[in-house]
Design goal:
Shape of chain A: globular
Largest interface: A-B, 33 and 35 residues
Strand order of the largest sheet of chain A: 1-4
CATH topology of chain A: Fumarate Reductase Cytochrome B subunit
Radius of gyration of chain B: 31 Å
Radius of gyration of chain A: 19 Å
CATH architecture of chain A: Up-down Bundle
CATH class of chain A: Mainly Alpha
Number of domains of chain B: 4
Order of helices and strands of chain A: EHHHHEEHHE
Distance between the termini of chain B: 110 Å
Number of strands of chain A: 4
Strand content of chain B: under 5%
Strand content of chain A: under 5%
Oligomer: heterodimer
Structural class of chain A: mainly alpha
Structural class of chain B: mainly alpha
Chain lengths: 205, 336
C-alpha cells in the first residue's frame, strides 16, 4: 500500500475529541444501564455510579462543543452535509452492499476520497446521532441534573418522567449506534484498519 | 301510639281516660321533645363554632397569644401570656375531621371555669381507639391494625403508651389528606410536617428521646437531590416497613433499618407504589383508567425501564442488533 493512497481524514483535534467522547459515552452507557437495572453496582455503589454518570455527562457535554465548533471552523463540517439528490437511493445502495454486495465481490459503491469521508449510510447515522440524539441526551441529562427546573406536568404526565424517558431512549439509541459503529469499523481492508486510523489520523483508501 | 288511639286505658288511680286526652298528651310530649332537641342542636352548634373563636367559651382564650381574667384574690383584671403549646389554630380546627365536636366532648366540662382545677391536668383523655376502635363505620381505616403495627415501632419502644396517636396526629386539626387529596405534594407536605413537628423541634424531640434531635439535613447528606426528595416523598417512605393491608404503615423503623438504596424506589418495582401512590393507584384505577394511572405513577423511576413496553422494545432491538452482527460476521468469515 503506497503513501499516495493515504488520506489524512482525522486531524489531531478530531482524534482528541473522539477519544474523550468515546470514553465518556462508554462510561455513560455502563453507569446508565447500572442505574436503571436491578444489577446495582455492588462494586462501586449506587452513589459512585451516579457521580461517574454525572462527570462523564459533563465531559461529553463539553467535548460536544469542541466537535460542534471544530466542524464550524474547519472543513470537517462539510462531510456531514446531506445531498438531497438520491436522498433515499444512496443509503439504500450502501445498505445493499453491506448485506449482499460485499459477499459477492461487488465494488464499494461510494469509494472514500478527499471529498467523501463517509459513505451515505454512515453519514446519515452520524448526523442523526451527533445532531439529534446527542443534543437531546445532553439537554435532558442537564435537566435531570437540576430536576427542580423541569416542568411539573406535561399534558397530565410528569415532566421528570417525560425527560427521563427521552434521556434513556436516546441513550439507548446511542448505545445501539455504538455497537454498530464498532462493528462496521471492522469492515475495511483489514478488521483493524479503521481503528488504527483513529489513532494515526491516516486512512488508507 | 296507634294502640292507644284504639283503646281507652286506665290511669294509675284506676279511672278511665278518654282517647282524645291521651292523643293530646302525646302531642304535647312530642312538641316538648322536639323543642328540647332543637334547643340542644342550636346551642351546641354555637358552642362548636370555631370560626367565631372570640365568643367560644374555651377558644376566646386558647386561640390567642394572651388571655384576660378577673383575679379573685387581688380583685383585679389581669392579662397574661398564653402557654404557646395551648394556643389552638381555629382555622385548622374548623377544617379538621373532629370539627363537629366541642372541646368539652373530649375534655372535662369543668374546664369551662377559670382558673382550671389543677387536678384536671391529670384527667385521662380518650385515645383514638376509645372512639374508633371496633367501629364498623371506620373499618376502612383499620385502627386496630394501626395500633398493632404502631406497637412494633421505634416510637412505642422508646416512649411506650405515653406515645399516643396525638403525638403525630393532632386531634384538633387532623385531616385525612392521604385519602382525600389528589395532590401528591400536598400529601407529602402534610405528612412530613407531622414528623418535623418533633424531629425538627429540640424541645419536643427531647421530651420523647431524652436527648437533642439530630440535624436532619446533615444526617441525610448522603441523599442526592435532598431538597427535592424532602418535598416530593414522605419521611415514612424510607422510615417505615410497608405492609399491604395498611394504607399508611405505622411501624416506624429505627434509623439503621431505613431505606438507603435508591433502587428500592427508583425501579419499576418501586416501594413507592406500595406506599405513597397506593391510594392514588386504587383511586385512579377505579376511576380514570388503568393506562394513565400506570403511566403517571411511574414517574419517579429512572429511565426507559419505567415503561414495560419500552423495556421490551429495547431488549428486542438490542438482541436483533447482536443477532445481525453475529450473522453478518459469519457470512464475512465464510465468504472471505
Amino acid at each position: 500500500m503506497s503513501e499516495t493512497h493515504k488520506i489524512y481524514f482525522y486531524p489531531v483535534w478530531l482524534r482528541i475529541w473522539h477519544g474523550f467522547n468515546a470514553i465518556g459515552i462508554l462510561v455513560l452507557i455502563i453507569t446508565g444501564i447500572s442505574m436503571q437495572s436491578d444489577i446495582n453496582s455492588a462494586v462501586i455503589g449506587f452513589n459512585m455510579t451516579v457521580n461517574l454518570h454525572n462527570i462523564a455527562g459533563i465531559v461529553v457535554f463539553l467535548s460536544y462543543f469542541a466537535f460542534f465548533i471544530g466542524n464550524l471552523v474547519t472543513n470537517n463540517g462539510r462531510f456531514y452535509l446531506i445531498k438531497m439528490k438520491g436522498f433515499f437511493k444512496r443509503p439504500i445502495k450502501q445498505g445493499q452492499y453491506y448485506l449482499w454486495g460485499m459477499f459477492h465481490g461487488e465494488k464499494y459503491p461510494f469509494p472514500l476520497s478527499e471529498k467523501r469521508k463517509f459513505n451515505p449510510l454512515q453519514k446519515y447515522f452520524y448526523v442523526l446521532v451527533m445532531y439529534l440524539a446527542v443534543p437531546i441526551v445532553m439537554v435532558t441529562g442537564l435537566a435531570l441534573l437540576f430536576p427542580e427546573i423541569i416542568i411539573d406536568n406535561v399534558y397530565g404526565i410528569s415532566g421528570v418522567f417525560v425527560t427521563a424517558i427521552l434521556h434513556s431512549a436516546m441513550g439507548f439509541f446511542i448505545s445501539i449506534f455504538l455497537i454498530i459503529h464498532l462493528y462496521i469499523a471492522s469492515v475495511g481492508k483489514s478488521p483493524w484498519e479503521n481503528y488504527k486510523s483513529m489513532i494515526t489520523g491516516w486512512h488508507h483508501v | 301510639m296507634r294502640d292507644i288511639t284504639i283503646f281507652n286505658v286506665e290511669d294509675k288511680n284506676g279511672s278511665m281516660i278518654n282517647q282524645s286526652y291521651i292523643i293530646l298528651k302525646m302531642k304535647f310530649c312530642w312538641i316538648i321533645l322536639i323543642s328540647i332537641l332543637l334547643l340542644c342542636s342550636t346551642s351546641n352548634s354555637e358552642a362548636q363554632s370555631y370560626k367565631d373563636a372570640q365568643h367560644h367559651k374555651c377558644l376566646k382564650c386558647h386561640s390567642n397569644q394572651t388571655y384576660s381574667f378577673k383575679n379573685d384574690v387581688t380583685n383585679k383584671e389581669e392579662k397574661r401570656l398564653m402557654n404557646p403549646y395551648y394556643i389552638l389554630d381555629t382555622v385548622a380546627m374548623s377544617a379538621g375531621v373532629h370539627k363537629p365536636f366541642d372541646c368539652t366532648d373530649c375534655h372535662s366540662s369543668e374546664y369551662q371555669s377559670y382558673p382550671h382545677k389543677s387536678t384536671l391536668k391529670l384527667e385521662p383523655l380518650s385515645t383514638c381507639l376509645d372512639c374508633h376502635g371496633g367501629d364498623a363505620s371506620f373499618a376502612s381505616y383499620k385502627f386496630d391494625k394501626i395500633q398493632e403495627e404502631f406497637k412494633k415501632s421505634v416510637h412505642y419502644k422508646v416512649y411506650g403508651d405515653n406515645f399516643s396517636c396525638s403525638k403525630c396526629h393532632s386531634q384538633h386539626t387532623y385531616v385525612a389528606t392521604a385519602r382525600n387529596s389528589n395532590d401528591v405534594l400536598e400529601i407529602v407536605d402534610f405528612d412530613n410536617k407531622m414528623c418535623l413537628s418533633c424531629h425538627n423541634d429540640m424541645k419536643k424531640y427531647n421530651l420523647v428521646a431524652g436527648h437533642s434531635n439530630p440535624k436532619l439535613v446533615q444526617i441525610h447528606s448522603w441523599l442526592p437531590n435532598q431538597e427535592l426528595h424532602f418535598s416530593h416523598v414522605r419521611c415514612i417512605e424510607c422510615h417505615t416497613e410497608v405492609i399491604d393491608s395498611l394504607m399508611v404503615s405505622h411501624n416506624i423503623l429505627s434509623k439503621d433499618k431505613a431505606v438507603k438504596k435508591c433502587i428500592q424506589c427508583h425501579s419499576s418495582d418501586s416501594k413507592l407504589k406500595a406506599s405513597l401512590y397506593k391510594y392514588q393507584n386504587l383511586q385512579k384505577r377505579s376511576g380514570k383508567g388503568i393506562g394513565s394511572a400506570i403511566l403517571t405513577n411511574s414517574s419517579y423511576t429512572i429511565g426507559t425501564h419505567q415503561s414495560p413496553i419500552l423495556k421490551l422494545i429495547s431488549i428486542l432491538i438490542f438482541l436483533a442488533t447482536l443477532g445481525g452482527i453475529v450473522v453478518h460476521s459469519i457470512f464475512r468469515i465464510f465468504k472471505k
